[in-house]
TrEMBL record:
Cross-referenced PANTHER family: HELICASE MJ1565-RELATED (PTHR42957:SF1)
Species this protein is from: Candidatus Bilamarchaeum dharawalense
Source domain of life: Archaea
Residue ranges occupied by any Helicase HerA central domain in the UniProt entry: 41-268
Record family assignment: Belongs to the HerA family.
Catalysed reactions, semicolon-separated: ATP + H2O = ADP + phosphate + H(+); Couples ATP hydrolysis with the unwinding of duplex DNA by translocating in the 3'-5' direction
Pfam families from the UniProt entry: DUF87 (PF01935)
UniProt gene name: cedB_2
Protein name: DNA import protein CedB
């Protein structure tokens, strides 16, 4: 039978309705575009330009992982997601803020900031509605994650025994949720200082068979009870109910002295929230009662025994979702990627990170190539759907369409371009980076909030634009190492040769050398 082959131009919308004999590169419209009154708008898909609304109704669980390098739009996406969740579902949100990155934004949106380490305390032995026996297990698991106590079974036994003793001394019933005295008043929980006291008294008696083990158990706990560092060994000033029912809340951990202290706070809060939600039980609720953001929390996102991983593995048991975000995918346990309902992949820089993501999420080589070419604000989405699917579960979003305008700062490159580059109209005279990303990087470099605010005001006084040589001189005068400045400039998109020119101009200016005039900006 004869026939003709006719070439016809068709729009994408017409192609998308046809039954093509290959796997479509995107899920069907019923997955991408559910009820918009009960879902969160993200953006349009790259291939068929379909609006994508996120909901947890058709996926394994509501938990989310987000990865992307600095400046890829990760924080911008999180902020957009929280704002839209509050609008669509009236969700509360708690940001467990490792570096204080979100606190300024939370204040700007009339949210609440709670800063641990600045006259705010969290008693590690608070029960949060748990039985003392259950809380002791959690405390010991946390100490195992954050210290080397697992390697010393006798010290572990002594510590657990001492914690149990201080609860009993306080008249707590070890197998009961509700703890009140004879007059019906809530019992006051013990603290780690009480545990150290019990162990010290045991040491002073001198009858224990292994005194070195006892002394080391005391020493380990004393790192949390030293004056000025006893953030977890005083009665709590932070109320759990206020953290999870006050709209948008930022729990700022940047005032704590080290990663161990920040991880201890984050794990304790997660344990309390999980228990509270467990006691309330699952109930039908449009949307989610609570969203918890863990950003750059590598210390508790990597270990498979942490409560972050346990919550993700337990899936839909509770009316809250965790958003776990990191620049480095390998800082997030593979168990999280294997169990979260959704993974958003923004710009990823290194092949080893792509290897890890592809091995964890099992997307195609075509998708890997597309992810490696993502620009700022673009992303790939991986869904763990509840039904067997005849189409790929990983697809591309052309651009995250956010709520808040992202204010940018600009570095003027004019003075460091060669004459040939200046004549080339295609060569950019400036680079830009998001204001919040800049502030976050300065925090990572060790600058105080006061100095960061001065930097910000300097940009804003100069119409958000400073020449790059003066900018580098400002950073060096504030003690920021040149290798860190070099990394910052490259992440902003400045090529190696231009970076060399920048530092050459900086050295010339600082030595009083003669060259092109370079404006100099000083901080007030």
């Amino acid at each position: 039978m004869g026939g003709k082959l006719v070439l016809t131009k068709l729009p994408n919308s017409a192609i998308s309705r046809r039954n093509i004999l290959v796997r479509p590169p995107e899920p069907p419209i019923e997955v991408l575009f559910p009820d918009p009154t009960n879902s969160i708008y993200i953006g349009r898909t790259k291939i068929f330009n379909v609006p994508y609304y996120w909901t947890y109704d058709n996926i394994a669980n509501p938990h989310i992982a987000i990865v992307g390098i600095s400046g890829s739009g990760k924080s911008y996406f999180i902020k957009t997601f929280l704002l839209r969740s509050a609008f669509v579902w009236n969700s509360n949100a708690l940001i467990i803020d490792w570096a204080g990155e979100y606190k300024d934004w939370v204040r700007e949106t009339n949210g609440k900031v709670v800063a641990l380490g600045r006259n705010s305390y969290l008693n590690l032995l608070d029960l949060g509605g748990m039985k003392p026996y259950d809380r002791i297990k959690q405390v010991m698991r946390t100490l195992e994650l954050l210290t080397d106590i697992t390697n010393y079974p006798e010290q572990r036994r002594l510590t657990e025994q001492a914690i149990e003793k201080v609860y009993i001394e306080g008249k707590f019933r070890m197998d009961a949720h509700e703890q009140k005295d004879e007059l019906g008043k809530p019992l006051v929980p013990p603290t780690l200082k009480d545990v150290v006291r019990v162990l010290t008294e045991q040491s002073q008696v001198g009858s224990y068979e292994f005194p070195a083990e006892l002394e080391n158990a005391i020493y380990r706990l004393k790192q949390f009870t030293k004056p000025g560092e006893d953030f977890f060994a005083q009665q709590s000033t932070v109320k759990l109910d206020d953290l999870i029912s006050s709209g948008l809340v930022d729990l700022d951990l940047s005032g704590l002295p080290d990663e161990t202290s920040r991880a201890l706070a984050a794990l304790t809060i997660l344990q309390f929230i999980k228990e509270k939600m467990r006691l309330e039980g699952w109930s039908y609720y449009k949307g989610l009662k609570l969203l918890i953001v863990l950003d750059e929390a590598w210390k508790i996102g990597k270990d498979e025994n942490s409560d972050a991983v346990m919550i993700v593995r337990e899936g839909r048991k509770y009316n809250f979702a965790m958003i776990i975000a990191s620049q480095n995918p390998t800082d997030i346990s593979e168990a999280i990627f294997s169990n979260v309902g959704t993974t958003f992949m923004l710009k990823v820089k290194f092949e080893k990170f792509l290897d890890y993501l592809q091995g964890s999420l099992n997307f195609s080589n075509y998708m890997r190539e597309e992810i490696s070419k993502l620009g700022v604000g673009q992303c790939a989405v991986n869904l763990s759907l509840t039904s067997q699917i005849p189409y790929p579960s990983t697809f591309l979003i052309d651009k995250i369409e956010g709520e808040e305008p992202s204010k940018e700062f600009f570095l003027d490159l004019t003075d460091v371009l060669t004459d040939k580059q200046r004549r080339d109209v295609a060569v950019s005279r400036s680079v830009s980076f998001p204001k919040e990303d800049f502030r976050r990087r300065l925090r990572q470099f060790g600058l105080t909030d006061e100095r960061i605010e001065e930097f910000t005001k300097t940009f804003e006084k100069n119409s958000r634009r400073i020449d790059v040589v003066s900018f580098v001189i400002m950073l060096e005068r504030n003690g920021i190492a040149r290798r860190n400045i070099n990394e910052f400039l490259k992440d902003a998109g400045i090529d190696d040769m231009t970076v060399i020119n920048i530092f050459g101009k900086v050295d010339m200016k600082k030595s009083g050398g003669i060259g092109r005039d370079i404006s100099q900006v000083t901080l007030e």
